Amino acid sequence: MSDETLLAARGLVVRYGSTDAVRGVDLEVRRSEVVGLIGPDGGGKTSTLRVLAGLLRATAGEAEAFGADTWRTRRALHHRLGYLAQRFALYGDLTVDENIQFFALMYGVPAWKVRRTELLELVGLEDFRSRLADRLSGGMKQKLALACTLIHSPEILLLDEPTTGVDPVTRREFWRLLADLVGEGLTLLIATPYLDEAERCTRVLLMHDGRILADARPQEIPDLMPGSIVEVTAEQRTRAAEILAEIENVADVSVFGNTLHVRVEGARDPVAVVRTALGDSGVPVEGARPIPAGLEDAFLYLTRSPEPEVLMEASS
Amino acid sequence: MGSVRTIAGFVVKELIQLWRDPKILSVLFIAPIVQIIVLGYAATTDIRKVELVVCDLDRSVASRELIDAFTASTYFDQVAAVPTQDDLDPWLDSGRARVAVTIPSGFAADREAGRTGRIQVLADGSDAMVGTLGLAYAQGVLRIAAEAAGARAPIELRPKVLYNPDLVSRYFMVPAVLALLIMIMAMMLASMALVREIELGTMEQLLVTPLTPSAVITGKLVPYAMVGVVEFVTGLLVVLFWFEVPLRGSFAVLALMTALFMICSLGLGLLVSTVSRTQQQAMMISTFVFLMPQIYLSGFVFPIQNMPRIFQLVTYAIPLRYFVTALRGIFLKGVGLDVLWPQALAMLGLAVIIFTVARLRYRRTLG
């Protein structure tokens, strides 16, 4: 594995009219990495990817791929980079074969027929070659789109929320497919709102409100948050949350399903702090136990987002 | 520009998509033929069977001969004969008659005495076209009748109509309808070109290929031009063999002019495509901003020389204007490039301007 930097951004700013979508992003993607650009919708992920793919001109700052400006060298770049848009689209009135053939010709791939067969086998569509793309299931469409973006054997693939709105089984399959590709030496930069997908990346960039809040390996992310987490189960959940929020050592309280995640800082026994506070106010506690901080806790801490719903809880 | 292979691949893809869309196919190939036939019959300024009401107050042989002259012509259809002039009004008011002829008593006596016979012709001016032509026809009938009677013609005016001596309006309307068809088809198809890819979301995937904008534009427009050629040939066959409009000029000049006009129309469609966000928008913009004004201001419907000066200036920017002139020149006068070179140059110039603007817009919206 080399440490060659394939993509880099420095002080990247993207502005649409008077709104800043990206406000000064620095990032790097090195060969053979699987980098997750993770964050809620509207955080600037798509704009960042589009600049890196040479589809959008940065308002300010630098964006480089293979050591050259992505916008100025975009035509050369497109021979080496693949991009799967969030709203990926195929020609529904063309067959599976025709869709891939079209993109092969557009990229000027010389021996595309061999490559097409390989890709169809890889994504498991070899039995559907003459089916119109419109007649494929959602998951199959996505695989076909992936095959189309890989026809020119790119060195790096940028994926914009490929698993959004996809059922869990298909999602797992898709990641398995990506893992195969990474095994063959492909580098990935993948934007996703699903925190659980961070685990599948070699490195995670947490993006929120146009900024990169953290850049770490997935297992390191929870360490970025001080204090410890107490999971509280209580009948009067809302009241408990209100009371706990007033306590000095409690940094913040978030609702997770039926429980509360209470982050306690600077206390020797965090569970006792919670139990005492609720006991004093006469709120019955069904359970309070220390839990290891998860990515989601860390993300909430890092974004200080008041709305936990902003992040989707993935089910698989 | 991309390689020939790349563009060929694009063209093939577009043709497959057109071929697999039965709705578009029928619109492209059946509608034009139906339209050219319907318009060929409807868009005619010839008047046949103008309803005529007669009031013969003279009741002489001469007056009856005159009335026979009217009814014998194919232009008039006598719907009534009334005893007094007052009885004419209800016929004209209700529109049951368009032209009324009154022969005053003493008409025959005047003629025999060598004096000019006077008759009154009333025409319904509420339909200006019918009114004017009705009067003109009536004059013609009277002149012929007067000559036949051996008397001195009361009208000395003897217009001679060139190129289309029978003034068959079909001869100049039908080729112009062909022009309209080419324009509508080329503009509509081209205006959908980029918008459809944007709406589908495939534009993003195209932009991430090394295709240049010119390659995309070429790949999009070449198949539409091919469709246009097929339509033109089909339409031309209908014009030549169904309507039997004579083609007096050369086919080569006609083909050249048509090619230039088609390029202008495709370019305008492309321009629409770069300013529209949805296919509906593209449809509205091409219809109201480009198609209708072109039709009104091209000289197809209204003579350009009758327009206010400012509109006359606007017509210079309208490709259809040059093409209609060229078509009429080629079909009716049989003239060639020695006469029509200004029209050819004008369309070429407009094509260059249109494509330059469209290309700049393309970069701004999609690049």
Question: What attributes characterize this protein structure?
Answer:
heterodimer, A: alpha/beta, Rossmann fold, Alpha-Beta Plaits, six-stranded mixed beta sheet, 9 helices, 30% helix, 28% strand, disordered C terminus, B: 367 residues, mainly alpha, four-stranded mixed beta sheet, 14 helices, elongated
Structure overview:
Chain A is an alpha/beta fold. Chain A folds into two domains: 5-222, Rossmann fold; 226-292, YebC, transcriptional regulation domain (Alpha-Beta Plaits, 2-Layer Sandwich), CATH 3.30.70.980. Chain A contains nine helices and 14 strands. In chain A, helix 3 (96-107) packs parallel to helix 5 (138-150) and helix 4 packs antiparallel against helix 5 (138-150). Residues 305-316 of chain A have low confidence and may be disordered. With 367 residues, chain B is mainly alpha-helical. Chain B has two domains: 4-43 and 168-366, no CATH class; 50-148, abc type-2 transporter like fold (3-Layer(aba) Sandwich). Chain B is built from 14 helices and four strands. Chain B has helices spanning 4-19, 22-42, 61-72, 88-93, 107-112, 128-148, 169-200, 202-207, 213-242, 251-275, 279-297, 309-315, 319-333, 337-366, and strands spanning 50-56, 76-81, 99-103, 120-123. A four-stranded mixed β-sheet of chain B has the order 2-1-3-4. In chain B, strand 1 (50-56), helix 3 and strand 2 (76-81) form a beta-alpha-beta unit. In chain B, helix 3 (61-72) crosses helix 6 (128-148), helix 7 (169-200) runs parallel beside helix 10 (251-275) and helix 9 crosses helix 10. The longest helix of chain B has 32 residues, at 169-200. The two termini of chain B are 16 Å apart.
